[in-house]
Amino acid sequence: MSAKLELYGERFDSRLLVGTALYPSPAIMRESVRESGAEIITLSLRRQNPEQQQGKMLWDYIRESGCRLLPNTAGCKTPREAIALAEMSREIFRTNWLKLEVVGDDYNLQPDPYGLVEAARELVERGFKVLPYCTDDLLVCRKLLDVGCEVLMPWGAPIGTGLGLLNRYNLRTLRERLPDTPLIIDAGIGAPSQAAEAMEMGYDAVLLNTAIARAQEPVQMARAFRLAIESGRSAHAAGLMLQRQTASPSTPTLDMPFWQQSDPATQ
Amino acid sequence: MADNRTASIAIAGGGLMGRLLAWRLAQAGLEVSLFEAGDLTAPGGACWTAAGMISPLSELVHSQRAIFDLGMESLSLWADWAEKLEAQSGRPVNFRNAGSVLVAHGKDRNELQQFQRELQAKLGDGIDGDLRRLDRTRLQQLEPALESFEQGLFLSREGDIDNRRLLPVLLDLLRRQGVRLHEHTEVECESCAISDRRGRQPFDCVIDCRGLGARHSIDGLRGVRGEVLVVETGEVQLQRPVRLLHPRYQLYAVPRSGGRTVIGATEIESEDLSPISVRSTMELSSALYALHPAFAEARIVETRVNCRPATMDNLPHIHSEPGLVRVNGLYRHGYLLAPALAVRVEKLVSEQLNQVA
């Protein structure tokens, strides 16, 4: 297992990707990003009237963090909208990396699998390195790989809910069936323990925003997530023990004859 | 000062901050000149766009403690100043110290709990008495129009002021006080001098409260777009500012005289001043409709768009050097912070003038 996260041929030490929205202030956002250790940050152009470059002041401020920028197409509902915004983002931020979002449902902001595949195919053809925000459905994921995505970002739960890993069966299936694809859990993570769990499962990285930005102390929460993700990754690399039904003492108890110390499960 | 003449003060920026300071300093007997790049009767700044909320508790949820402390101070200053302004001008400014109500729809009920938790985390036991949970009956008593809500929160120490009355009243008083008003005059501020295209004028002290007009003088000052709707209906009347909590946005409705309600405000990281978007119109009006279905028949009488001047930490900044005080970055908290900041600026100015003497 490689120690570094490899995405589209680039290597990263950090396995935490963070968003830049919802913070109490840009200054707290930048401090949180620094504390999170993230090397990739997502940002959205939607609603800012990007043609006029009137959000430029903040974009420059974000750029100064030195992180790789991953523009997203948050809020886009059709492939056409997403593609248009992607082109604009590529021009403004001078990167062909893209977090592709095509929202299919207003209430839970669920990705639209059909629109997503269609947009991904077109964007890959146009030279984008697409990181699609998708559901945890194996067949949708395979389709996205077929059209040329090299990284997948399945949800843990709907955006902003903090519900954690809702469908562990599906997520495990994805990991097992797509062992060579970098998989990043994107959205739904509310607590560091949930992020650690995703990493223990063998996911390559975690992308989140709300849980840090909306914490009462975002900078401190950024640190908590950094540690949890390092911890989860380390645990995965070390190999987790299997769970057992019966307690087994890790040190032999001296006053007990040793034939009673063996694990009943193996007798 | 060596001689006995009255000290001369130049204030750059005729928004809320500039007007309040001009009024206060003229009252203190100083010779005040006010410079405004735009129009004083129909100001182009955020002060004219705003809804005039003075809500230290609600704003604390997404900001820092300093905003709350300054806000509480302002709230009591407003009570005093509004009375003086009305007495001096003989016209109402409609300062209302009636608290505010927060509601959330059934599915978003957790938002109320989250709001309460965040306030408690930030203020500890300090909010006891300021925050009350409302059941249906008590909510009905406070806000009869909110009949479709099962519960809410009442924040007793919040208020609002009718900015569209206040700003003309202030202007009127400045005229009466003999403040020298220079409209349509874009200026640059430096220590003890104001310069415009006609030349440079000396003053004993210069106060820069130009908001985004000071963009080139203050590092990291940016505009944050906000959009507001004003609607009019005779069918439904709120009694005080009401906030609707929603997972994705927080919108408020502020009742004004004449059956009008101001509903705001979006917050978009952009300095775009183009007209309100369809999406924002839908968000704002659906929030209003959620408060009471009769709002569906209200007429949209005005849409407002402007940019709030904010620094990168979204906190207000006062910078003082001999002969020059700058105050800026009031962001979305103009009416909440202006009086408390004015008092601080006054103090700095008077210290400077005393040193010169």
UniProtKB/TrEMBL annotation, chain A:
A Pfam family hit: ThiG
Highest rank taxon of the organism: Bacteria
Annotated localization: Cytoplasm
Annotated active site: 99
Gene3D superfamilies per UniProt: Aldolase class I (3.20.20.70)
Region (Disordered): 244-267
EC supergroup of this enzyme: transferase
Residues engaged in binding 1-deoxy-D-xylulose 5-phosphate: 160, 187-188, 209-210
InterPro entries the UniProt entry points to: Aldolase_TIM (IPR013785), Thiazole_synthase_ThiG (IPR033983), ThiG (IPR008867)
Enzyme Commission (EC) number: 2.8.1.10
Alphabetized GO MF terms: thiazole synthase activity
Main localization, broad class: cytoplasm
Keyword Cytoplasm (UniProt): yes
Annotated pathway: Cofactor biosynthesis; thiamine diphosphate biosynthesis
Ranges annotated as spanning the membrane: none
UniProt keyword Cytoplasm, yes or no: yes
Catalytic activity: [ThiS sulfur-carrier protein]-C-terminal-Gly-aminoethanethioate + 2-iminoacetate + 1-deoxy-D-xylulose 5-phosphate = [ThiS sulfur-carrier protein]-C-terminal Gly-Gly + 2-[(2R,5Z)-2-carboxy-4-methylthiazol-5(2H)-ylidene]ethyl phosphate + 2 H2O + H(+)
Similarity field: Belongs to the ThiG family.
PANTHER family linked: THIAZOLE SYNTHASE
Assembly information from the UniProt record: Homotetramer. Forms heterodimers with either ThiH or ThiS.
Summary of the function given for this chain in its UniProt record: Catalyzes the rearrangement of 1-deoxy-D-xylulose 5-phosphate (DXP) to produce the thiazole phosphate moiety of thiamine. Sulfur is provided by the thiocarboxylate moiety of the carrier protein ThiS. In vitro, sulfur can be provided by H(2)S.
Official protein name in the record: Thiazole synthase
UniProt lineage: Bacteria, Pseudomonadati, Pseudomonadota, Gammaproteobacteria, Cellvibrionales
Recorded name of the encoding gene: thiG
Automatic annotation (TrEMBL), chain B:
Keyword Oxidoreductase: yes
Enzyme class, broadest EC rank: oxidoreductase
Database matches in SUPFAM superfamilies: FAD-linked reductases, C-terminal domain, Nucleotide-binding domain
Name of protein: Glycine oxidase ThiO
One Pfam short name: DAO
Membrane spanning residue stretches: none
Annotated metabolic or biological route of this protein: Cofactor biosynthesis; thiamine diphosphate biosynthesis
Domain FAD dependent oxidoreductase, chain residue ranges per copy: 9-343
Keyword annotations from UniProtKB, A to Z: Oxidoreductase, Thiamine biosynthesis
Key word Oxidoreductase present: yes
Gene3D superfamilies in alphabetical order: D-Amino Acid Oxidase, subunit A, domain 2, FAD/NAD(P)-binding domain
GO molecular function, one term: glycine oxidase activity
Domain of life: Bacteria
EC number annotated for this UniProt entry: 1.4.3.19
